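Structure in, sequence out. Go:
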């Protein structure tokens, strides 16, 4: 061990992971994933799929989950900056409905592990962000679920985002504080609030 620092969050099942970065005047090297180090830290998940996305500033993706085949996700940013969020959807959990967020950037090289049973999403803060994540189960299109990104009862504090809740997950009236309009897919503007959504 010693190659990673694992910090449990106040919500059980969420972890911020910081790799050891070896750098000099030529650049740097780091291990982005080492199964042995993860297991020594108590994280014994098995990953079956890697994904990567690229998004422009102001894009908000989420909040997503799979219902019958939930995915644990190990997420990181290789270019740019995002604010990454998980919301606890586990019925019976003492933190049900609570959220945790962390800024992931190409500079801080932090990773965020989100166990099964959470809704997940992120907001792009840089001009461009390339986002990578490992999943513990395969993506299944018919199993998708979602949670309204701006549910006032959850109260996610998206950084640099200004606007007033219109009563729906619409992006209308929201922008980053530099004037960049919020950009959300039509599908993500249709999800329900917590009290009317799926829970595990």
């Amino acid at each position: 061990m010693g190659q990673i620092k694992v910090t449990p969050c106040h919500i059980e099942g969420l972890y911020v992971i910081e790799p050891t970065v070896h750098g000099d005047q030529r650049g740097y090297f780091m291990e982005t994933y080492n199964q042995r180090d993860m297991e020594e830290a108590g994280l014994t998940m098995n990953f079956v799929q890697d994904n990567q996305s690229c998004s422009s500033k102001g894009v908000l993706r989420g909040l997503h989950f799979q219902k019958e085949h939930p995915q644990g996700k190990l997420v990181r940013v290789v270019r740019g900056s995002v604010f990454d969020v998980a919301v606890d959807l586990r019925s019976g959990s003492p933190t049900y409905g609570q959220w945790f967020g962390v800024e992931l950037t190409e500079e801080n090289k932090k990773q965020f592990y989100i166990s099964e049973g959470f809704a997940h999403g992120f907001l792009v803060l840089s001009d461009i962000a390339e986002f990578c994540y490992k999943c513990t189960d395969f993506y299944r299109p018919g199993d998708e679920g979602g949670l309204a990104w701006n549910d006032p009862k959850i109260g996610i504090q998206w950084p640099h985002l200004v606007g007033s809740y219109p009563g729906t997950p619409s992006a209308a009236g929201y922008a980053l504080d530099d004037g960049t309009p919020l950009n959300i897919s039509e599908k993500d503007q249709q999800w329900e609030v917590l009290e009317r959504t799926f829970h595990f």
